[in-house]
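User: Just a sanity check before I run the rest of the batch. Below are the structure tokens for the first item. I only need the designed sequence back.
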């Protein structure tokens, strides 16, 4: 019985190692192009927010409260 337990333990360990090797080999990470595009979109969003903020503040400062 002890030999059977060792066999299953080694089998499970071998499957685990194979799974880890496969995960390491896969290229699921972001590519440089994806990172650059995301950064550019973030910059555009910040620019749009700054323009909108400037226009809203300009209108708010133009209100005459008497």
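Assistant: Here's the designed sequence for the first item:
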């Amino acid at each position: 019985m002890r030999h059977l337990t060792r066999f299953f333990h080694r089998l499970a360990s071998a499957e685990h190692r194979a799974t880890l090797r496969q995960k390491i080999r896969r290229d699921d990470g972001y590519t440089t192009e994806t990172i650059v595009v995301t950064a550019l979109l973030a910059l555009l969003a910040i620019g749009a927010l700054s323009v909108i903020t400037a226009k809203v503040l300009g209108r708010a400062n133009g209100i005459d409260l008497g």
